[in-house]
Write a structure and sequence with these properties.
2 domains; 38% helix; 288 residues; alpha/beta; globular; 6-stranded mixed sheet
Amino acid sequence: MDQTLALPQAWAMQRTQGAIEWIAHSEQWQDEWQSELEELIGSFGNRPDGIRCPEAIFAYPLTSRKVVCARMADMGAEGEPPVAMAFQWVVLTTREYDEVGGHPFRLFAGSTPPWQVRDRLPLFQAQRLQKLDDMETLAKAYQRPESAFVLGGCQAILDGNRLVVERSEPATSLIADLWTLLPLAERSEHWPASFAFSNALHFDVVVVPKIKEEECDQRYLRFEQAEWYPEGRYEAALQWAIEAGDERMVHHLLLRRTRRQTLKLGLYLLLGMMLLSSVMGLISHFRP
């Protein structure tokens, strides 16, 4: 199997007065996506005074079978107020999103933003996940200064919570490290944004310049709450395995099923047992 995915992409620009202009797109791009994406741009929020966004990344479901990963950045002369916000969109099927590890931050890592390209873009080249992260990569994500937030945040997400962080600028590295320590299956069921002007889209993990209570229900934990979140099984096991250098245990944890997957498996087993019982009952009934 080819380890590289060729994905449709486009980029658009929203000027300060709100007008959206589509600048360039690749082959396989579908025009009907644009209205949905323009709604996402509108939900991204209005820029508060004095706030800049040098670069941020988010992922969000586009349809029931497609996911969009986005990179956005201010446009304008250095030292001057931004005149527009640029959005690069990469569209994947849900299966393709799983194949790249459900990690939008890795998806864009090492690639150049297309802000200088007009009219025609090449297909976006993404690497399928070939192996799990090595211990050095995982230790780096765990040992950052905000390790308490990263570990507590992972456990909180697994327990059904969401996270909201208030900062005046994107926190892409922080959210990317949290995402690295989440189980792979969980990444594909949750939606992160390393910065947004509002949380109207109700991301599972989001960084905003100002937390608005009406956009964050009781499931959202603040930074300090995630730092002091009660230690759970996953957090404790992951911390022990990384500190002990037990790569086998770490990989076992990263490959754990989500609650939804476990419930689905249990339901299939139950239906299988019921079907087997019915078949055995029929066999007994007609046996001479």
